[in-house]
Amino acid sequence: MKRILIAEDEAAIREFVVINLQRAGYEVVAVREGQEAIDEFERRKGGLDVIILDIMMPHKDGFEVCKYVRENDSAIGIIMLSAKSQEMDKISGLMMGADDYMTKPFSPSELLARVDALCRRISVTDAKLAEEAENYILESGPFVMDLRKKVLFKNKEPLDLTITEYAIIELFLKNKNVVLSRAQILEEGWRKQKSMDEKVVDVSMRRLRMKIEDEPSTPKYISTVWGIGYRWEEQ
User: Fold this and answer.
1) pTM of the entire structure?
2) 185-216 per-position pLDDT tens digit
3) What is the rounded distance in angstroms from the CA atom of residue 94 to the CA atom of residue 88?
């Protein structure tokens, strides 16, 4: 059973999320504010699959919790909740390592679709390891991806990638020098979530470049193909 942590200070929304996730078969842990979310994360380290974080919470907001969690766990799925539809909230959350975002109000079906997609991505990644046991290394220039360990190395040093970022880089390394559209990257990284905006891809590319490029402002590996998408440049 997948375990979900929800951090939301509004009781009505928190209970709404808990009830719907439990009905879908998830085990749910609910807290009211940011510091409680961090404490619960530490207490259950390695035992959570997805964290749902409201942005506006007392003491520590969702951004602070997201940053803390992502610095300590690159594999866990993170969904941000925002009462605003402002672009900056979405960008800030994604830049801090969130995998997805939702704007309140949202429907139970949309919530479950997002959570299911994140959990499915973890399961699909695990299943791929068995299928590719005999060919589990992808290489490009200074980069080596170990599909069994789910790790990307640059110059033999491991890089700290989220589940989404790992999926995107894997797609790139399997399609070197091929132009990939934003829609293709969105489908691989976010598992066909139709309501996702393709602008999310641009934010994720910005964050990825900060992690893998020597000079993020002048990218050498992930190049932009204007009007279409991105391409991994084999060195």
Assistant:
1) 0.67
2) 988 777 655 556 778 889 889 999 999 999 99
3) 10
